[in-house]
Design goal:
This protein has 113 residues and is of the alpha/beta class. It has one domain: Rhodanese-like domain (Oxidized Rhodanese, domain 1, 3-Layer(aba) Sandwich). Strands 1-5-4-2-3 form a 5-stranded parallel beta sheet, covered by helices on one side. The protein starts with 7 loop residues before the first strand and ends in a 15-residue tail after the last helix.
């Protein structure tokens, strides 16, 4: 597999809820996460991924997301090379919000992207 072979999925192909072997892995920075994120997403900033690999479910299907798809593409490639089932979410959280999917804050209120 070369670096371009990580699958891309459109927002419409991403599950609406996560758990039971399906993880939405948000790799944006802390300040981006705090402004708003998908309900049920797991947050590990891109730069922390190598040090926090133990937190990523090795058996899960990983939907990796960032703001627009660039950082998540690199993380999905990295995870795929480590043996994870990772796909990149095309368009990232911008596409997520644009599709009318919920965006929340940790405080429980509505978030922004």
């Amino acid at each position: 597999m070369d670096d371009t072979d990580v699958p891309q999925v459109a927002i419409g192909d991403v599950p609406a809820t996560f758990g039971d072997g399906v993880v939405l892995l948000d790799v944006r920075e802390d300040d981006e996460w705090q402004q708003g994120h998908a309900p049920g997403a797991q947050h590990i900033p891109m730069g922390d991924i190598p040090a926090r690999m133990a937190e990523v479910d090795t058996a899960a299907r990983l939907y990796v997301i960032c703001h627009s798809g660039g950082r998540s593409q690199r993380v999905a490639q990295y995870l795929a090379h480590q043996g994870y089932q990772a796909v990149n979410v095309s368009g990232g959280m911008s596409a997520w919000a644009g599709a009318g999917r919920p965006v929340v804050r940790d405080t429980g209120g509505a978030g922004t992207v």
